[in-house]
Amino acid sequence: MKDHELILRFCALNHALRDYSRPMKGFLNNFMGVNRSLDVNLSEQLLAEEFTRTIDCIYTSVGSRAFRPISTMNAAVFDAVSVAVANRLRNGEISEPKELKAAYDSLLANGDFEKAYKKSTADESSVRRRIELATEAFADIQ
Question: How many CB atoms lie within 10 A of CB 97?
């Protein structure tokens, strides 16, 4: 069920980051409760397209090591990178996903980002900071 949780984290943080408060489990449960009946504004089709497009872009650029700062999948890195890339894609700001790899590598080398994905990962400030850092890292990608 970890894969389901990651998809839910993507959807919730992508659409309700401003409402985030810890614990993550409570935030996800609340997001699901509010969106129990998907409508035109937040449809199943929209969520599926956003997720698929984002993951395809990241996988095409970074490959199988995406979201793995060391060797295992890191949910905090997944949150930050996927939400930041989804926002850029939504605004039509990434036309060449190959440029994403260099920005991704630079982000993982950023000491502030490392702190935000390793310590107190559910704290509001950590969640917002790592998404902010990822957004800045991908800001110049065309």
Answer: 17
